[in-house]
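Q: Convert this sequence to structure tokens.
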Amino acid sequence: MTRADLTEELCQAIELPKKESDVVVCTIFDSIVRAMRSGDKVEIRGFGSFRAKDERASDGIQKPERESKRHRRRYPSSNLARHLVMPSSESEQGTVFG
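A:
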């Protein structure tokens, strides 16, 4: 699903013009990104949680002819709600990956 798909779904669900629907979707994503960049955890009940984690710095692979250093960096991490990923019974498919 893309941002355009989400915009279209919102447009149809609440009969909002497409341009305004796109502004709503972009505002939500921008808010999530800003929160994660500032170190906050984002939790959307019933959907999942998102946060930025720090990767540990390392010396990298040591080669005799040169020394390499990897700097710390941040990367996104998420935990989707279990009911979205895993089927609740054998006959039911999971919503996200099923």
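The mean pLDDT is 77.
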